[in-house]
Amino acid sequence: xxxxxxxxxxxxxxxxxxxxxxxxxxxxxxxxxxxxxxxxxxxxxxxxxxxxxxxxxxxxxxxxxxxxxxxxxxxxxxxxxxxxxxxxxxxxxxxxxxxxxxxxxxxxxxxxxxxxxxxxxxxxxxxxxxxxxxxxxxxxxxxxxxxxxxxxxxxxxxxxxxxxxxxxxxxxxxxxxxxxxxxxxxxxxxxxxxxxxxxxxxxxxxxxxxxxxxxxxxxxxxxxxxxxxxxxxxxxxxxxxxxxxxxxxxxxxxxxxxxxxxxxxxxxxxxxxxxxxxxxxxxxxxxxxxxxxxxxxxxxxxxxxxxxxxxxxxxxxxxxxxxxxxxxxxxxxxxxxx
Length: 338
Description:
Blueprint: E1 2-6, H1 11-22, E2 26-31, H2 38-48, E3 53-56, H3 62-72, E4 76-79, H4 86-91, H5 93-113, E5 118-124, H6 147-165, E6 170-176, E7 178-180, H7 199-207, E8 214-217, E9 229-230, E10 232-234, H8 235-249, E11 254-260, E12 266-267, H9 268-279, E13 285-288, E14 297-298, H10 303-309, H11 317-330
Parallel strand pairs: 1-2, 1-4, 2-3, 4-5, 5-6, 6-11, 7-10, 8-13, 9-14
Antiparallel strand pairs: 9-12
Helix pairs in contact: 1-2, 1-8, 3-5, 5-6, 7-9, 7-11, 9-11
């Protein structure tokens, strides 16, 4: 299969690109490298023994995307490209709406123009907001609490409307929870530019001495230790979930939603403890006020993906932290060390 991957040089995108190549697919990555490095794709090529094609462009660039479709003629698309930080989205919401919605419009129009009818969309558990109590099932009410989550929610609605207009379109929406970890080789992993917006890379940078301490946003949530709980999923498990969704859409048109998670909530302080165990390094932290847009607890009911995709998460929290530490130890400054 020929698969176009938007945002394929990023954290989740690079691991999924590797999984696609290892499964024998042809891959074209379109990424503007605004929050990624081309070094990730060089390492993916080394691990896979095959090189993905690459075009550096913003997915909102109609001419660049049209040229990508014209030259590559993809059978399917996996759409990762977008801005993704909850806290940042509350500060620059218009940027989030422009980038995330605009890229989706351009992509869907290019797909229609070039007769590509299969897409897997990288959605998020943030669409569940505070409308439901976890564990979330796919039919739970949705309604995000921050601009980032709202862009994901809106894109889901756009995709559903696109399917209603074109029943031959096959759409898989993957609502995944909190990806962490790295490839077991230590060659590819999460390398955020600037201050990390996600928990584990920040913890890893504190352990590596790049940051003084971790700020824990809130210790008064209604959870066992007062810190927020999330469903952390290994990025490699997440990558295999995308391949499983692509396979399912090969013989199933229409609009489909699957949760990708473990179904097990883990608190911020439990993550800190697991990373200290994996690394042997004490991680200093300070309690700070709650962060705008956060919810107390979010975790999946992954039963639908287990049953329909034949997929399940297999990695433990300890493995996720050990793989993150291996990546961070080998690449203390991320891909810049290359």
